[in-house]
C-alpha cells in the first residue's frame, strides 16, 4: 500500500478514536439517566441554588443544582446534581422551586430531575 493510503487510514482511525473517547462518557451518562428515570424512586426536591456550568448539551445549558431531596418516608438530605435545563422551565425554575426527582434506591446521591412530570407552582403559591 502507498504512504497516502496508510496516512488516510491513520487519520480516520485517530478521528474515530477521539470521537469515541469524547462521546462515550456522554452516552454512558445518558443511558444511566434513562435507567434511573425508569427504575428510580419518586421523590420531591427543593432547588436551593443553581449555577451555570458554562456547558451546553444539545442547545440546553448544563446546570449545577443544589437540591434538598425529601423522600416519601420523610427523610431529607442535600445533594449536588448536574443536569441540563430544558427551555420551557428555564425562566421558571429558580431557588425555592419544588421539582420531582427520581432517586437511585441503592445510592441516594444519584438523582435525576423528572422534567416530564414537572409542573410549575400556581402564581402566588
Query: Which range does the strand content fall in?
Result: 35-45%
Going by helix content, strand content and strand pairing, the class is alpha+beta
Distance between the termini: 73 Å
Query: Total number of helical segments?
Result: 2
The main sheet orders its strands as 3-2-1-4-5
Largest sheet: 5 strands, antiparallel
Helix content: 25-40%
Provide structural commentary:
The chain is of the alpha+beta class and 125 residues long. 33% of the residues lie in helices and 37% in strands. The protein contains two helices and five strands, in the order H-E-E-E-H-E-E. The chain has helices at residues 3-39, 87-90, and strands at 41-57, 60-70, 76-84, 98-103, 111-113. Strands 3-2-1-4-5 form a five-stranded antiparallel sheet. Strand 4 (98-103) and strand 5 (111-113) form a beta hairpin. The relative contact order is 0.17.
Amino acid at each position: 500500500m502507498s504512504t497516502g493510503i496508510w496516512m488516510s487510514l491513520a487519520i480516520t482511525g485517530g478521528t474515530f478514536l477521539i470521537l469515541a473517547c469524547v462521546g462515550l462518557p456522554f452516552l454512558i451518562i445518558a443511558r444511566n439517566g434513562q435507567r434511573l428515570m425508569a427504575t428510580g424512586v419518586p421523590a420531591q426536591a427543593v432547588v436551593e441554588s443553581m449555577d451555570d456550568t458554562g456547558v451546553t448539551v444539545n442547545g440546553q445549558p448544563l446546570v449545577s443544582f443544589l437540591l434538598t431531596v425529601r423522600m416519601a418516608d420523610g427523610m431529607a438530605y442535600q445533594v449536588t446534581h448536574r443536569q441540563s435545563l430544558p427551555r420551557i422551565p428555564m425562566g421558571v425554575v429558580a431557588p425555592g422551586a419544588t421539582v420531582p426527582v427520581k432517586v437511585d434506591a441503592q445510592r441516594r446521591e444519584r438523582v435525576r430531575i423528572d422534567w416530564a412530570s414537572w409542573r410549575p407552582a400556581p402564581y402566588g403559591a
